[in-house]
Each structure stands twice: as structure tokens, then as C-alpha cells.
Amino acid sequence: ADLLKRPYFVNEKGEQRVELTGGGWEITWDKSPHGILTCSFISPQTVQRNEASMEAGRFFLRHRVWTQESLESERSRRRKIQNEAAKSIKTRDQKIKEMTNEEGTMGSKVVSYAK
User: Fold this and answer.
1) 104 against 69, higher pLDDT
2) What value does the CA radius of gyration of the chain take, rounded to a whole number of Å?
3) pLDDT digit string (tens) for 44-68?
4) pTM of model > 0.90
5) What is the per-residue DSSP string for 21-60?
6) What is the DSSP string of 86-109?
7) CB atoms < 10 A from the CB of 110, how many?
8) Longest dimension (CA), the chain
9) Angle at which helices 68-101 and 106-114 pack, to 10 degrees?
10) Residue 34 · residue 70 · CB < 8 Å
11) Residue 72 CA: distances (Å) to CA of 62, 76, 77
């Protein structure tokens, strides 16, 4: 990608140039495992593509950023949570299946599920 190329977007009228000025950025880190990249620009004109539009003026973009170490740690933590959730869903589904196959009153079905 040519990082020095003038910004543009494509709409029904073809390639549209956008003169962005006053740009700046910063990365902030706090106690969370990720940082926040904040960028800002000024667009002197309203730009529109399909139903989306950006009014003239300053706009900000924010995105999480990670170190390689914190990214791997958070991916591992997420996998663990997803595995625990999958086990809980499987247990729930088994209990529901047992309840629908049981003979008896609703009370006995609720007690069965609570076990």
C-alpha cells in the first residue's frame, strides 16, 4: 500500500478524492492488556458513499492494539472461556433432553434439571 497516496473512496461517481488535514494520533495504555490507538483528521467537505456519510469537520477513529505477548495471553483466555461456555451449553442441552423424555410432573422435571 502506498501510504503517501492521497486519500480517496469510490462511489457511483467513481474515485473521489478527500483532502484530510490536521491529522494526529496517539496510543494509550492503561491497566488493560490492550492499548487504544486514537487517530483524528479534519475533512473540509462532507463525503458520502451509498447511505453512509461523514459530515465535514473533525472525526476520530479508535481501535484496540496489542503487544504480541498480550495478544497471545488474551487469545488463550478467550479459548478457555469459549470451551467452558460450550461445556455449559452441552450440559444444559442434555438436561433439557432428559426433561422432555421424562415421565412425570413438571415439578419432577424442574428438580431433575436443578440436579
Assistant:
1) 69
2) 26
3) 888 888 888 889 999 999 999 999 9
4) no
5) EEEEEEEEE-SSSSEEEEEEEEESS-EEETTEEE-SEEEE
6) HHHHHHHHHHHHHHHH--S-HHHH
7) 10
8) 74
9) 150
10) yes
11) 21, 6, 9
